[in-house]
Please model this.
Amino acid sequence: MRLKLILSLLAVALLVLACFLPWMTIESKAITITGLDTTGTDYGKPAYFHFLWSGIYLLFVLINKVWSKRTAVVVAAFNIAWAARNFLLVPVCQMGECPVRKIGLYLVLVSSLAMFITPLLSEGKKS
Model:
C-alpha cells in the first residue's frame, strides 16, 4: 500500500476520533462539548460536516488518478476551512464566559491539515 494512502487514512481516522473527543468545556454550566454532543448550546453538530468532507476526500484519495488527487486537495481545503471555523467560532467568549479548549478541537485542526498535506507528498522514485 502506498505511503500517501496510509497517511491519508490515518489523518481521516484521527479526524473522526477527534470529533468524539471533548472539544471544550463551559465550566459555569458544567457542560462538555464534543463535535457530536453540543447539548446546552446553539452550536449544532459540527462534526457531521467533517464526516461529509472526509468521506468525499477518501473517495478521491482511493481513486488512483491525477485529477482525483487534485480534487482531494480541494476537498481537504474545504475541510480545513470548516476546522478553522470550528476552532475560532465555537470556543468564543460569550457574555463573560470563556470556554476552555480541549484536545479534540486541536486534533481536528491538526488532522485537517494532515489531510491537506498528504496528497501533496511526492511519490518515492522507484529504482
The radius of gyration is 16 Å.
